[in-house]
Amino acid sequence: MKQGFLHEIKKNHPLFIMLLPAVILVFVMSYIPMSGLVLAFKNYRFDKGVFGSDWNGLENFRYLFSSGTGWLITKNTILYNLLNLITSQALSIILAVIISEMRARLYKRVVQSVIFFPYFVSWVIVGTFVYNIFNYETGVMNNLLTALGKEKINVYALPAVWPWIICAFNAWKWSGYNSIIYIASITGIDEQCLEAAEIDGANIFQKIWYITFPSIKPTIITMLLLQVGRILRGDFEMFYQIVGNNGQLYNATDVIDTYVFRSLQQNSNMGMTAAATFYQSVLCFVIIIIVNALVKRADPDYALF
Amino acid sequence: MNKISRFMAAAISISMTAGLLMSCGSSATKGSTTASTNQSSAVEGETDSTTAAALDLSKEVELSLYVVSDRPAGQDVLDENLNKLLKEKMNTTLKTEWIAWSEYANKYPLLFSSGEVFDMAYAATWLNFAALARKGAFKSLDELWPTYAPKNFARQSETALQQATVDGHYYCVPTLLATYSAYGPIYRTDILEGTDWDGKMETIADYETYLQYVKDNTTLEPYDVYSSGSEMDDIFMYNNGLYALKGSTNDFLWIDPAEENPKIFTYYEYDKTADFLEMMNRWNQAGYFPKSALSDTDSSKVQNGVAASTLHNIDTYQSRFIEHPEWGFKFANFVSDVSNMSFTQDAMVISNTSENPERALALYDLITNDEEVYRAFMWGIEGTSYEIKDDQLSMLDLTTYPGSSMWAARTTEFNLPTYGSPADLQTWKDSFDQAIVDGEGSQKYRSFVLDISSIETEYAACQNVHQQYWWPLELGYTDPVSGLQEYKDKMEAAGIEKVIETLQTQLNDYLTAQKG
Fold first, then answer.
1. With A195 labelled, which of A6, A278, A299, B50 sits at a CA distance of 20 to 30 A?
2. Is B464's Cβ below 8 Å from some Cβ in A?
3. Chain B touched by A80 (CB under 8 Å)
4. Is residue B292 within 8 angstroms of chain A, CB to CB?
5. Chain B, 108-137: which have a CB under 8 Å from a chain A CB?
6. How far apart are CA B463 and CA A269, in angstroms?
7. B97 strand-pairing partners
8. Regarding beta strands B120-123 and B61-68, do their DSSP bridges make them parallel or antiparallel, or are they unpaired?
9. DSSP string, B406-426
10. DSSP H or E stretch at residue B61
11. What is the CATH number of domain B183-340+447-515?
């Protein structure tokens, strides 16, 4: 019964033509640059070029793991991303449900705009906010504490609280933006189901739990899978702008991207940079394959591929 | 299935051929340009050349120059004026490309790896000149420089020529402007008027007294520290007559130039480090700088009247003084053994891809030796962008016409102090000139360039540890004793011993070569 690929093309050629630009774009933007990954195994010289430089084995990867930092930053990157993934997605879903339940049109619009706004604020500015809230001498937090007759706290000397601060700002920045996708998905739910539930006497929480959540489950899983694919890429801007050059916080806040940036800022070694990217990409690849396989086993309909 | 794989194979082979074609493209253009230069040298006999070394100027050439800075709004007018002059003098025009401050860290190294065809670029020690040269980013100037820029070549000092040499070849044209390693507090005096402060500023202890007065009498931050770290450690070491091996601030390797055969050491191997850390801890307790300064990104606290003093060089003193004459800024030099900063801290390089390196060097020779061209290039048009008042330079509109960012082209002869400069500026510089003797003290080590290519991994790791553990330690944020021990442990884990061992061998070789 299986027919050839050519037959398939003949039958659906308008569809293939429509697909072509996207395929070309992905090929040019994502597949051709992949050849640059060979740099990770080379001692790059400007005059010899990417493909002409000499091979040097795993030498470029050594600096990532020398003195044991490699595991720490890999662990930090994964944990931060997991934390951020869970908090920002959970918040976005809750926001989306609440906004969808709102009936007053104007109020709904205003709320939506307000929570969407942080998306447009750059991390540079957020970094300044954070400093002005937490700095020891003139920060808002310490001014409040003094006004309440309490001791000042030097937050910048307490690495343990930073994962939560970063997580909070990350959620603040992204949940409004992510909630748009869930709102769209909620809007797509068949009104009849909700009406039927209402007739059956379901209250608002039961409706959300038994109708809304199951209906947006595919969206949630797709969003999670997409985010998991980026789990080894730290949001460089965020970490760099919020933490600055504060060595005291590095053990708690260093992710692969910031470590690589700092180490190579002064040496500009293309091979080492490529090695870090290679490491991130391979780990990301492995993780996404595993997660997708797990999802597929649980419910094949929700898997990405 | 078979058809699919055949289709895939075709697709892959097409893409690979495309890749090949692309990489061939650049070499093909290169070939054609060599052909055209050959052609032009054939007509050489017909025109007599005005510049030295029989450079053929019959063909008009547009050269390109990359500098690091934001492109000023009024640049077009100045370019037009300069190009008119250059066309007249040597049938050449110059196109300047600007790499913005916000993207230079990524874009600058990519310039040399992208294969883009351009002629000249600004280079500097802080842009990793030596490392890039070693990796083959620049054209060797061994023959080109003396031939096509003879005047410039003749005026370079022995030290500068050594500094331009990497692995036995000249790779850059260093600046002809002497700058000094003098470093110290730049401090406001207006805020302490009416107090009993004696105004003495000769030692670090005097500076501490000043900071305490500022703390007691004003609401300003006494000492300006922000996210790029404190430079008090550098000052302390310089003050003790030591020299940073890298030749600039924020280094972790030191030598004592007074020794016959100096041994490289790092902070925890120096006996006065404990005293220093104790002092910084005291400063932190006294509140001379914020307790979270390393996360503060505001780099202009002194200019904006938030902080009272900073530690920097004499050029910064000049700028601060001119910006706010009413604040009575003063400068003190805390470096006990002043030398010339490396002449490669501002330099010009010829790109590997340049098609007209001869013309580029001839142009550079003209800029650095012809005052008319120099002024048009560096400052623009007299009356529009700059004026000369009392032999001092006054830039008329710094936002529209801030002047060229090709700082490497400045020369001691043509450079003028900025209008409104402090009166003691020249006194300071003269005193440095008197103190510096080529081949003595720290001046002797200024030409030593680290070659970290065999220890890149360890060096990068050490740099990282230095920033992570030393910076907070230096500011008294961590405990002076246990913090130093932790710094030591981490440095050792990062491979500091191998770094020191390798560089010590290089330093010994350098000294042997100097004697011979």
1. A299
2. yes
3. no
4. yes
5. 109, 112-113, 115, 128, 131-132, 135-137
6. 14
7. B66
8. parallel
9. -GGG-BTTT--PBTT--TTHH
10. strand B61-68
11. 3.40.190.10
Token code pair at residue A23: 């395929």
Tokens 């992208």 belong to B114
Given this model, what pLDDT does residue B297 score? 82
Average pLDDT over every residue of B70-85:
92
C-beta separation of B326 from B193 below 8 A: no
What CA–CA distance (Å, rounded) separates B301 from B310? 9
Q: Which ipTM was obtained for this model?
A: 0.82
Beta bridge partners of B393: B388, B418
Nearest to A5 among B4, B227, B456 (CB): B4
- A-facing residues of B in 298-317 (CB < 8 A) are none
Give the residue from A232, A230, A254, A262 showing the smallest Cα distance to A163.
Answer: A254
Q: Which of A70-84, A191-205, B17-31, B494-508 has the lowest mean pLDDT?
A: B17-31
The Cα A71–Cα A255 span in angstroms is 10
CB neighbours of A204 closer than 8 A, spacing ≥ 6?
A101
Record the tokens describing residue B131, joined without a space.
Answer: 């490392």
Q: Where are the alpha helices (DSSP H) in B324-370?
A: 357-369
Tokens representing A274?
Answer: 């490529």
What stretch(es) of chain B map to CATH 3.40.190.10?
Answer: 50-180+343-424, 183-340+447-515
- Measured between beta carbons, the chain B residues lying within 8 angstroms of A157 are 291, 477
Kindly give, in sequence order, each residue whose CB lies less than 8 Å from that of residue A23, ignoring residues fewer than 6 positions away. none
Residues of chain A in contact with residue B7, where contact means CB-CB under 8 angstroms, are: 5
What distance in Å separates the CA atoms of residue A279 and residue A268, rounded to the nearest whole number? 18
Closest CA to A71 of A246, A229, A259: A259
CB contact under 8 A, A135 and B15: no
Pairing of strands B392-395, B386-389: antiparallel
Please name the residues in contact with B322: beta carbons below 8 A apart, sequence gap of 6 or more. B418, B419, B420, B421
Helical segments of B370-479, H only? 371-378, 425-435, 456-465, 471-474
CB pairs under 8 A between A and B: 143
Nearest CA in chain A to B469: A247
Interface test with B, best of A30, A122, A153, A248 (most B CBs within 10 A): A248
Residue B347, SS3 per DSSP: strand
pLDDT value at B5 more than 70: no
- CA separation for the pair B296, B298 (Å, rounded): 6
Asked if the C-beta of B6 comes within 8 angstroms of chain A's C-beta atoms, the answer is no
**Cβ atoms < 10 Å from Cβ of B144:** 21
pLDDT tens digits along B469-504: 999 999 999 999 999 999 999 999 999 999 999 999
Q: Which residue do the tokens 């009413």 mark?
A: B326
- B71, B98 contact by CB (below 8 A): yes
pLDDT digits (tens, 9 = 90+) for B91-148: 999 999 999 888 887 788 888 888 889 999 999 988 889 888 988 899 999 999 999 9
Q: Report how far residue B377's alpha carbon sits from residue B90's, in angstroms, rounded to the nearest whole number.
A: 15
Question: What whole-number distance in Å separates Cα of residue B412 and Cα of residue B422?
Answer: 18
> Which domains, and CATH codes, for chain A?
64-302 (1.10.3720.10)
Q: A243 at the B interface (CB within 8 A)?
A: yes
Residue B339 CA to residue B442 CA, distance in Å, equals: 6
Superfamily per CATH, domain B50-180+343-424: Periplasmic binding protein-like II (3.40.190.10)
* Nearest Cα residue in chain A from B134: A45
Contact A234, A254 (CB under 8 A): no
Tokens read off for B165: 């040499």
Nearest residue in B to A27, CA atom? B15
- Among B372, B374, B398, B373, which residue's Cα sits nearest to residue B386? B398
Collapsed DSSP state (helix, strand, coil) of residue B308: strand
